[in-house]
Amino acid sequence: MKPIQEYIAQLNEPKSFAITHHYNADADALGSTLGLRFFLEKLGHTVTLISPNKNPAYLSWLPGYNEIVVFDETSDEVKNILKDVDAIFCLDFNIFHRTKHLAKTLEEFAGTKILMDHHLQPDEDSFDYGISIPAKSSTAEMVYDFIQLCQKEDLLDKQIASCLYIGAVADTGGFKYSNTAPSTLEMAAALMRTGIDISRIQERTFNTRSEGDLRLLGYILKDNMQLFPEHNAALITIPQDIYKKYNIQSGGTEGLVNYPLSIGNIIFSTFIVEKDGEVKMSLRSQGSLDISNIARTYFNGGGHRNASGGKSDESLEKTIETFKEVLDKHKKEINLCYKELQQSV
Ligand code: 5GP
Ligand code: MN
Q1: How far, in Å, CA of 179 to CA of 150, rounded?
Q2: Which of 39, 171, 247, 338 is deepest in the core (most CB within 10 A)?
Q3: Cβ–ligand 1 contact at 308 (below 6 Å)
């Protein structure tokens, strides 16, 4: 993979681009790709945005949301579009299988493949050009950096800014998590100066939950969440029937994994969900506890030090058992990180 800087000269003549992101988009996946789309269009290029699967309704306010082509729904159309595309930008993931059914089409794509991502362990051999910075707050911030690298800050407008802003807000938990850097806040300031309404953007994203989503939160906190104080850990598990009972929509469980971390002695929270015959999990930690390692070693996953995900081929019950064994194995390490955190400010 060559540095993305070496591709920039090729933006001088009009090209046809596609942009894609990981399966089950979140705000950073959609915010960063839409932000890049509007920027590239302003440079005079033609851009198609491809989502691997249906996008969550809570992000439907994003400009351009309705023009996104969904691979799982129109795979033939996507394959046709890609025939005329010069290069495809891959954002917010770094290995093709994170796009699930779209992976094979990406592998077979004959044009240029460009990576822009902030996850650990990029599969660099799959890309022609790219940039991978795991320390970056969000892919949205990387798109902002890219605009600066192109020396085109003057092209920033409200449309681009609102997309990038929500991506950074979501991946930093509202500029709270340790991945928030001075550069993140500097970007936020620059985006704000375009005139975006940051309060309204957050309301439209986070204050549109359904009654079922909130009742689910009540049930989880009262009856579902298991605490393992000896391990400074917590576990939330959602079997398929709970989805039906609370009529949970796509994106409806977003953020639930974070709640247990607000308990004083909990620094490791895991959320395991059984949906459409699959067992998926989200892991979150605080401080130096690297749960991307746990996700990678035991649950076919990965991600960032403090926010990772994975999956299991086993039943929900068996996965929960495995999780408890993993907790025991890593008890010392987790306890040590907790002690360390107690001693920091
Ligand atoms: P989330 O829990 O919000 O789905 O994901 C948290 C982080 O872990 C994200 O940065 C995401 O990209 C990563 N992640 C989630 N699921 C998987 C997975 O199955 N494999 C890998 N490698 N990373 C994942
Ligand atoms: Mn991200």
Answers
A1: 24
A2: 171
A3: yes
- Gap between the Cα atoms of 139 and 169, Å rounded: 11
Predicted confidence at residue 209, as pLDDT, reads 86
> 263 and 198 in one domain?
no
pLDDT digits (tens, 9 = 90+) for 13-61: 999 999 999 999 999 999 999 999 999 999 999 999 999 999 999 999 9
Domain range for residue 36? 2-206
Residue nearest to atom 23 of ligand 1 (CA): 302
Averaged pLDDT for residues 239-253 = 86
Q: What's residue 276's pLDDT?
A: 84
C-alpha of residue 301 to centroid of ligand 1, in Å: 7
Residue 143's domain is classified under what CATH number?
3.90.1640.10
DSSP result, 24-69: S--HHHHHHHHHHHHHHHHTT-EEEEEESSPPPGGGTTSTTGGGPE
Across the range 307-326, mean pLDDT stands at 97
97 and 178 part of one domain? yes
Distances in whole angstroms, Cα of residue 26 to Cα of each of 23, 58, 167? 9, 10, 8
Identity of the residue numbered 51: S
| Residue having the nearest C-alpha atom to atom 16 of ligand 1 | 309
119 lines ligand 1 (CB under 6 A): yes
Q: What is 278-307 written as a DSSP string?
A: EEEEEEEE-TT--HHHHHHHHSS-EE-SSE
Tell me how long the chain is. Answer: 345
250 has pLDDT over 80: no
What b/e string do you get for 121-134 counting C-beta neighbours within 10 Å, with b at 16 or more? Answer: ebeeebbebbbbeb
Residues within 5 Å of ion ligand 2 by Cβ?
28, 92, 139, 171
Which of ligand 1's atoms lies nearest the C-alpha of 283?
Answer: 2
Q: Provide the pLDDT for residue 251.
A: 78
pTM, 2 dp: 0.92
